[in-house]
């Protein structure tokens, strides 16, 4: 073999060996490429499923209609972990957090490889951990799965979880998790709890100094707590300020000014607004974290202060309750259940808006509304305020005096007892109670005897909440709203409104109450209102409304003790007018309905000019058959073709029997012409809907029916 051949053969063998080594190396790399992902997957499986539910197991919070915090509750472990999202936090805080904790946050996928290399090099060079190389995502992983030890195994677990977290929720979700879980000292978790506790404000309104302190605290929450270690807190805050200034997030001047801010050493209490409404919301949905109410936090805080100050002025052991309603929607804007929730002497834990109390004279407007509705009286009808006996019952006016003949308007404005009882005797207590109950009020009566005339002066039990809804019904033309406190209920289909009176009667009552004399130094004619004082001076009420709002006030002792001098007009009415002043806005009232009869007493139809108890009722004292409307019957649905095109006028025939002619027909509060000796006539409706048809004879007897025209 020649030398050249030998060299050629050797080169061939070397080439073959080289190819073999390359193939083996490629095979090894391929096997490693398969092994590493397999190992990664196996390790990931060994950690178990990722649980991101921790923020959902935080503090239950109750917020107002605008998202402002009313009250928060600790977790089962006694921690304050309030939910927080990026949109609810000052954007400067987010920028400062990223600049200080994780500069390449937007570039990596949960793990910053460069930071890990730097940390490893520092560890090898110094023999100890100098910097951890953790990203914000890795910190979130540690918060979700806390471990006591700081080891390579723990770090590897954080790395795996960080990648998994970003795959699940992305960058925005990582920030949201951090904002809810980061520790801030003691039992505070999450930026919202820390901002409220240390600064008394929501994190949306943080100053530069405050934001820097909250960036620094989670690194060492216990040793930097401003309420215990203000010096350490200040040093950590200033370090953050210097770092973010170097990154250009704030100017040098802003940095120096922020460093001059004192570090607050206080830890503030969390808000406890609307405690009764908040607890009711928690009881209704115990597993829910965020409960949104229809209340307005600003108004609620103002009314709670008003209730506390008002009760303290009256005397010891007294409480107060205030309820404010949006008439259009029925939403409750303020719910003050007691003067001081934490007062044991005043039984502050009892929600007096839901307590059964004697309403005093606050039911009188509904007596008058029924009388106006049935045609028994008109606001200008003369009533007798004089001593009268109804069997053994002999009511008296509050001041024990008598006014003689007064109009129904004046009698209601002065809250005279005798005219109200005179009308109630004509209407019947059972009819009044049925109307109140049908309108949604829960009425409590004694089981010992049938309801008598005393119910008109407060001889029954009712809740302030129900009274407020009834008065809101007057403001709405007789349609009582269903009261709503949870915003979730506002989205539900609304039930059919219940009626407390017809539109004309409601307008009459509202117009009368608007003319009632206001308390001393209060403006007149702005709101329609009525006061009430229960028997024995145990309860003082004042309820008022305009077109937009209704406010109800109660003052008294929760234990039902008597308080000499506790009179609704003197004690509760000033609070009502103060509450309306705090509510603000104008005081509009709806215009009169089409069928309102505005007239002097002398111009009224003769049966309406003066009410006579001896002649009232179904022909009491009259000769012959009792007065009765025979067509249309009460509750009937009459098809007049009002919903279809008609060639001529659709007329409703009206027929009566009995009574003493001449007869006066009244439809929806308006008389149909002059008294007529005939017992039948007709009426042209102005459209489909309900109509109240009443009749009065010459002796003052009345009858009334409610029909639906179609």
From TrEMBL:
Keywords: Carboxypeptidase, Glycosyltransferase, Hydrolase, Multifunctional enzyme, Protease, Transferase. InterPro entries: Beta-lactam/transpept-like, Glyco_trans_51, Glycosyltr_51/Transpeptidase, Lysozyme-like_dom_sf, PBP_1c, PBP_C, PBP_transglycosylase, PCN-bd_Tpept. One of its GO terms (molecular function) is peptidoglycan glycosyltransferase activity. Gene3D superfamilies: Biosynthetic peptidoglycan transglycosylase-like, DD-peptidase/beta-lactamase superfamily. Residues 321-538 form the Penicillin-binding protein transpeptidase domain. Residues 77-244 form the Glycosyl transferase family domain. Its EC number is 2.4.99.28. It comes from the Bacteria. Residues 623-705 form the Penicillin-binding C-terminal domain. It catalyses: [GlcNAc-(1->4)-Mur2Ac(oyl-L-Ala-gamma-D-Glu-L-Lys-D-Ala-D-Ala)](n)-di-trans,octa-cis-undecaprenyl diphosphate + beta-D-GlcNAc-(1->4)-Mur2Ac(oyl-L-Ala-gamma-D-Glu-L-Lys-D-Ala-D-Ala)-di-trans,octa-cis-undecaprenyl diphosphate = [GlcNAc-(1->4)-Mur2Ac(oyl-L-Ala-gamma-D-Glu-L-Lys-D-Ala-D-Ala)](n+1)-di-trans,octa-cis-undecaprenyl diphosphate + di-trans,octa-cis-undecaprenyl diphosphate + H(+). It holds the Pfam family BiPBP_C. Pathway: Cell wall biogenesis; peptidoglycan biosynthesis. It is an enzyme of class 2 (transferase). One of its GO terms (biological process) is proteolysis. PANTHER family: BINDING PROTEIN TRANSPEPTIDASE, PUTATIVE-RELATED, PENICILLIN-BINDING PROTEIN 1C. In the N-terminal section; belongs to the glycosyltransferase 51 family. NCBIfam families: PBP_1c. This is peptidoglycan glycosyltransferase. It comes from Methylocapsa palsarum.
């Amino acid at each position: 073999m020649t030398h050249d051949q030998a060299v050629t053969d050797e080169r061939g063998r070397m080439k073959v060996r080289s190819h073999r080594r390359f193939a083996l190396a490629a095979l090894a790399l391929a096997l490693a490429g398969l092994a590493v992902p397999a190992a990664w997957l196996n390790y990931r499986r060994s950690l178990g499923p990722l649980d991101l539910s921790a923020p959902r197991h935080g503090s239950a919070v109750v917020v107002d209609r605008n998202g402002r915090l009313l009250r928060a509750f600790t977790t089962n472990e006694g921690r304050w972990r309030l939910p927080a999202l990026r949109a609810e936090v000052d954007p400067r805080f987010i920028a400062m957090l990223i600049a200080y904790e994780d500069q390449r946050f937007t570039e990596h996928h949960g793990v910053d490889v460069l930071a890990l290399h730097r940390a490893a090099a520092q560890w090898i060079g110094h023999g100890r951990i100098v910097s951890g190389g953790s990203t914000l995502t890795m910190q979130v992983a540690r918060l979700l799965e806390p471990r006591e030890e700081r080891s390579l195994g723990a770090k590897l677990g954080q790395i795996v979880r960080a990648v998994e977290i970003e795959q699940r929720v992305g960058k925005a979700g990582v920030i949201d998790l951090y904002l809810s879980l980061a520790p801030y000292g003691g039992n505070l978790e999450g930026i919202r709890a820390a901002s409220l506790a240390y600064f008394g404000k929501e994190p949306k309104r943080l100053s530069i100094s405050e934001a820097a302190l909250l960036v620094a605290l989670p690194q060492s929450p216990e040793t930097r707590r401003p309420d215990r270690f203000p010096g350490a807190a200040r040093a950590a805050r200033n370090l953050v300020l210097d770092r973010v200034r170097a990154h250009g997030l704030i100017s040098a001047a802003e940095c120096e000014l922020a460093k001059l801010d004192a570090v607050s050493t206080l830890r503030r209490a969390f808000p406890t607004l609307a405690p009764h409404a908040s607890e009711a919301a928690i009881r209704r949905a115990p597993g829910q974290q965020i409960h949104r109410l229809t209340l307005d936090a600003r108004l609620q805080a103002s009314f709670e202060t008003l209730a506390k100050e008002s009760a303290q002025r009256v005397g010891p052991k007294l409480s107060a309750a205030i309820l404010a309603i949006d008439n259009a929607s029925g939403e409750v804007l303020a719910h003050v259940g007691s003067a001081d929730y934490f007062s044991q002497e005043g039984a502050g834990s009892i929600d007096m808006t839901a307590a059964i109390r004697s309403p005093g004279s606050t039911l009188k407007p509904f007596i008058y509304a029924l009388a106006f509705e049935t045609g028994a009286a008109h606001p200008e009808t003369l009533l007798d305020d004089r001593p009268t006996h109804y069997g053994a019952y002999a009511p008296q006016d509050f001041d024990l005096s008598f006014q003689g003949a007064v109009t129904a308007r004046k009698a209601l404005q002065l809250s005279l007892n005798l005219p109200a009882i005179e009308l109630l005797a004509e209407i019947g207590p059972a009819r009044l109670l049925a109307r109140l109950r049908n309108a949604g009020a829960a009425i409590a009566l004694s089981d010992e005897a049938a309801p008598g005339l005393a119910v008109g002066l407060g001889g029954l039990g009712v809740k302030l909440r129900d009274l407020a809804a009834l008065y809101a019904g007057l403001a709405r033309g007789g349609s009582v709203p269903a009261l709503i406190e949870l915003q979730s209920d506002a989205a539900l289909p609304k039930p059919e409104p219940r009626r407390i009176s017809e539109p004309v009667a409601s307008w009459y009552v509202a117009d009368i109450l608007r003319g009632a004399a206001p308390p001393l130094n209060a403006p007149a004619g702005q709101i329609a209102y009525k006061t009430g004082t229960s028997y024995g001076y145990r309860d003082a009420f004042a309820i008022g409304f305009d077109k937009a709002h209704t406010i109800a006030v109660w003052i008294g002792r929760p234990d039902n003790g008597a308080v000499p001098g506790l009179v609704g007009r003197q004690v509760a009415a000033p609070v009502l007018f103060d509450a309306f002043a705090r509510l603000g806005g104008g005081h509009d009232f709806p215009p009169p309905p089409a069928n309102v009869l505005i007239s002097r007493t002398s111009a009224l139809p003769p049966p309406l000019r003066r009410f006579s108890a001896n002649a009232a009722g179904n022909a009491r004292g009259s000769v012959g058959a009792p007065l009765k409307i025979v067509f249309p019957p009460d509750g009937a649905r009459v098809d007049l073709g009002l919903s279809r095109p008609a060639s001529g006028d659709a007329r409703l025939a009206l027929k009566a029997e009995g009574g003493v002619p001449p007869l006066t027909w009244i439809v929806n509060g308006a008389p149909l012409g002059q008294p007529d000796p005939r017992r039948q006539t007709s009426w042209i409706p102005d459209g489909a809907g309900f109509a109240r048809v009443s009749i009065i004879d010459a002796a003052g007897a009345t009858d009334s029916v409610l029909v639906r025209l179609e």
